Amino acid sequence: MSTTQQTVPMLEVRGLSTGYGNIPVLHDVSFEVPQGKVTAVIGANGAGKTTLLSTIAGLIPATSGQLMLDGTDISRTPAASRTAAGLALVPEGGRLFPFMTVRENLELGAYSLGRDAGMRQRIAEICEIFPVLAERQSQMAGHLSGGERQMCAVARAMMSRPRLLMLDEPSVGLSPLMTERLLSTISDLAASEALTVVIVEQRVTEVLAMAELAHMLDHGRIMKSGTAGEFRTDRMIQETYMGR
């Protein structure tokens, strides 16, 4: 692989704007996500974080701008095709199908693999990463604990073997201990599966401890970008988001 190819970001967001009807939400948002890194996006409620991830995933159309996934323009690519290209989103709350079993939810995450050896092999791999799910395969997803549901949502997204995993507020409703366990699992996934991760998270202290890079979104605009270390020592970030 050439040096040029190695330096292509996994995700490039260029001048992205979008909204809901006549209400603008994102304004000329631009940033890059390097391959193999964990990148955090922080910001107050209503800053546009969920809209940003949903637009990248293709669930909300952009009004202007460009999205590049590993050097390929996906700006007008349907959401399902973005998933096939290696992008996966874990939405806020996980959005599992509560009246389906854990295994059935996992299978939905890899429908493109078909019901063959590839599907079975991937479920076996995922259950090694998430042992609690191996024990719960036949259980209804709606009967899982909050932490188990989030683990299942992440596992379902991983079934498609994504290159870029995006997570929207994965710690919502979880205890500090379960949050620590979940974020640790995500960090391990990023390392073991050569995965690029974009994570939106309200628990800023915890997410900056696991991320390498960070962006601050405010009123639909990127107001600050840098390393997670720079964010951790920034007085404004500390006072606004870290309670210091």
Automatic annotation (TrEMBL):
GO function terms (MF aspect): ATP binding; ATP hydrolysis activity; branched-chain amino acid transmembrane transporter activity
InterPro entries: AAA+_ATPase, ABC_transporter-like_ATP-bd, BCAA_Transport_ATP-bd_LivF, P-loop_NTPase
Span of domain ABC transporter: 11-244
CDD domains in alphabetical order: ABC_TM1139_LivF_branched (cd03224)
Keyword field: Amino-acid transport, ATP-binding, Nucleotide-binding, Transport
Keyword hit for Transport: yes
GO biological process terms on file: L-amino acid transport
Family to which the UniProt record says this protein belongs: Belongs to the ABC transporter superfamily.
Protein name: ABC transporter ATP-binding protein
Record lineage: Bacteria, Pseudomonadati, Pseudomonadota, Alphaproteobacteria, Rhodobacterales
